[in-house]
Design a protein that fits this description.
alpha/beta; 6-stranded parallel beta sheet; globular
Length: 183
Amino acid sequence: MKLIVAITGASGVNLSLKFLNNLPEEIDAYVVFSKSAKLALKLENNIKISQLKKKNITIYKDKAISAPIASGSFGAEAMIILPCSMNTLAKCSMGMSDSLITRAFNVMLKERKNIVLAPREMPYNTLSLENMHKLSSLGVSIAPPVLGYYSKQQNLDEMENFLIGKWYDLLNIENNLYKRWNG
């Protein structure tokens, strides 16, 4: 599977790193960090993108508008924007293509591919909710990092695994990252 992973400047960028680190090796990830995501990564986690090394990950600059993922002929099967800033959400909702992230999003949308947005904000304002509604009506899955409380004994790692497992489910990536509800 060819998976585009866009990482924008919302808080919680560490979830995207954990998402990438847990990806099965048979999934080829094409990753784009926005300028704000790089800053959030440094401020929140003191990590640089150069520290992310995995065989199945290719990283593009957000300014590289001619990268392969900017074309429908590339054949990506799914895309996730994790976390998705409200700025990126608004641009996606309006059809803007001013960066590789928004261009790849628009390509995936026109190709009717599987797209998941993980908006990281709380509370949502009316404009953000309208943008989410608009994108959802176009077939985009809106999946913010909302925790499940299925177990009484959950630590942060287990809660993050739950979120990543749910996003993998939406992207049709098999996983056993969380305990599934069984009544």
